[in-house]
Amino acid sequence: xxxxxxxxxxxxxxxxxxxxxxxxxxxxxxxxxxxxxxxxxxxxxxxxxxxxxxxxxxxxxxxxxxxxxxxxxxxxxxxxxxxxxxxxxxxxxxxxxxxxxxxxxxxxxxxxxxxxxxxxxxxxxxxxxxxxxxxxxxxxxxxxxxxxxxxxxxxxxxxxxxxxxxxxxxxxxxxxxxxxxxxxxxxxxxxxxxxxxxxxxxxxxxxxxxxxxxxxxxxxxxxxxxxxxxxxxxxxxxxxxxxxxxxxxxxxxxxxxxxxx
Length: 261
Hints:
Strand 3 (about 110-120) and strand 4 (about 125-130) form a beta hairpin. By secondary structure, this protein is of the alpha/beta class. The chain is about 35% helix and about 20% strand.
């Protein structure tokens, strides 16, 4: 592992995980306070969104907007669609993002930016390195069964985390210090000694998280970064955006512990 103190340029990989991704903001705040320059971001799902805001130099504005959201306001962002194709259209979310940062072509950003989506028909990853950043974000956040998928160049795209929840394999600046923020870290354990008593739904959810943890772990083994910031997968539910202040602080504190131990 290379020295965190000696290398100043960072390639930052931001994983997917719903509202837990607000922890990405806190991690970035910590890195900037330490004087590090992030000149490459690779993200999927919420990582593509937070990374896009940072690349647009509007991360602070995104965080401040998120902090204003209540449960009710989060619900109002849900534009319901035909449930056969996905619960939400996602247009209302993107329309509100226009108040935070403008659409721009990825190739015109001041740093290297890559967003990952999933091509469901061909079971392949779709990589966005040019074109509208909004189009890239919208495809990357299309959680199956939640947001409607997106058709791009005759491909049906959904959330990048389906195949690759921590896309380390798309880092291009190999000489940078590579830092991954993994939103599928081991869960915070119940402090009681009671044996697990899973309902059918709970068992399905926990099985899904176990699968994601394994995917992330295998990616880390194959493409080892210099540092991994692990955010527990049960730190927040997918729609807990009303907890923005808490989750941003969580990311900052985990980053601080990661780089000082």
